[in-house]
Amino acid sequence: MRPIIGLTTFTESKGASRYNCLNSNYINAIVEAGGIPVIIPLVKDEESLLKYINIIDGLLFTGGEDISPLCYGENPIKEIGAIEHERDAYEMFLFKEAYDVNMPIMGICRGAQLINVALGGSLYQDIYSQIENSFGHSPKGGPIDQAHHMIRIENDSKLYNIFENETIAVNSFHHQSIKDLGKGLKATAHSYDGIIEAIESMDRNFILGLQWHPEAMVPKHEIFTKLFDEFVKQCSKFA
To answer: The whole model's pTM is what?
Structure first.
């Protein structure tokens, strides 16, 4: 049976209208891996969100704007980007409910940071001003499906088991990154300047956070389909 996988969304204003949005790359990657994507609208009603948790077999936290530093006990520095408090609250609630039932969870870019913060971790609000000698992680104007830098993968990790390689090239579109790890998490990949590029749970069946955007790499780089194949496989076990 094909598993049903929930994908989180963001809101966007166009003129007088406001939309719930999601990049189709996430949807396509889940479909190609054999999953059935369900888009979860950004709503405040927790009872409605619980209905989605009862329907889905896995949860994918997507990329987007900065998480409010208030979520990890800090005030914003001047380099902080756009924040959407409603999205922070909606995703924190979804994570808690999915986590409590040991549902497979994947987070991409902001989604990886969300997982970390939801488990009590913190973020560098801006890597360029807070991490000395950091490399470029947010190129301007480059194709989203183009590799930007290399990462090193720990060989005792789910990520290594998926890629069967200690180094891969990834794309990159972020100015924040994970600082202090959340409860039960370990860092399983780093860029060559030491920034955390992947996290995994040490005490749950499948929680994986990735700082890059593998969904955008899938169409031209087949290796990244392995991530979604494994995620969908884990969701099938949960179904």
So the answer is: 0.96
